[in-house]
Amino acid sequence: MSESQQIPEAILRCTEQIPPLPDVVVKVIQLTRDQESNAKELTNVITQDPALTGNILRLCNSAYYGLPRVVSSLSQAIMYLGFYAVRNLVLTCSMRNFYESDRVIYGYNEGGLWFHSVASAITAELICEKLRPDLRDAAFTAALLHDIGQLIIAMSIKDTCDTILDIMEENNIPEYDAERQVVGISHDELGGVVADRWNYPDELIHAIRYHHKPSAAKSPSFLTSVVHLSDSICLQLGYGVEAESMKYQAYDEVLDTLAINRDSIDIFSEQAKLRVEERAPIFIESLNGAS
Ligand SMILES: [Fe+2]
Ligand SMILES: [Fe+2]
Question: Of 69, 99, 129, which residue constitutes the final position of a domain?
Answer without folding.
Answer: 99
